[in-house]
């Protein structure tokens, strides 16, 4: 059994700072993170940039004024569905 976790960060802009603090306590190097909705606005946050596997949905990336950091992957809905199916444990933080 795999011990990796997929974290879906779907919080409002106001809640994302607290969610990222919570994620700091939960995250392990095997885990993946997908920023969704307003949480995408935190793509430049050091707590996100120091993680190894971070992605955003292509449609959500459109709300960014600047470019997405190079280490953050853009996912189509098909790629997102494939990613979700690769995990036995998925935690939604909102």
Give the topology:
Blueprint (H helix, E strand, L loop, with lengths): L5 E4 L3 H14 L5 E4 L10 H4 L4 E4 H4 L10 E4 L1 H9 L4 E4 L1
Summarize the entry for a quick read.
This protein is of the alpha/beta class and 94 residues long.
Descriptive account of the structure:
This protein is 33% helix and 21% strand. It is of the alpha/beta class and 94 residues long. The chain has one domain (6-93): DsrEFH-like (Hypothetical Protein Ychn, Chain: A, 3-Layer(aba) Sandwich), CATH 3.40.1260.10. The chain has a 5-stranded parallel beta sheet with strand order 4-3-2-1-5. Helix 1 links the parallel strand 1 (6-9) and strand 2 (32-35). It starts with 5 loop residues before the first strand and ends with a strand. The model has no long low-confidence stretch (mean pLDDT 93).
């Amino acid at each position: 059994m795999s011990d990796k976790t997929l974290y879906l960060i779907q919080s409002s802009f106001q809640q994302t700072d607290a969610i990222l603090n919570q994620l700091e306590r939960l995250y392990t190097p095997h885990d993946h993170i997908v920023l969704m909705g307003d949480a995408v606005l935190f793509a430049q946050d050091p707590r996100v940039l120091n993680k190894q596997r971070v992605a955003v949905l292509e449609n959500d990336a459109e709300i960014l004024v600047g470019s997405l950091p190079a280490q953050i992957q853009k996912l189509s809905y098909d790629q997102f569905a494939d990613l979700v199916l690769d995990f036995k444990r998925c935690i939604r933080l909102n």
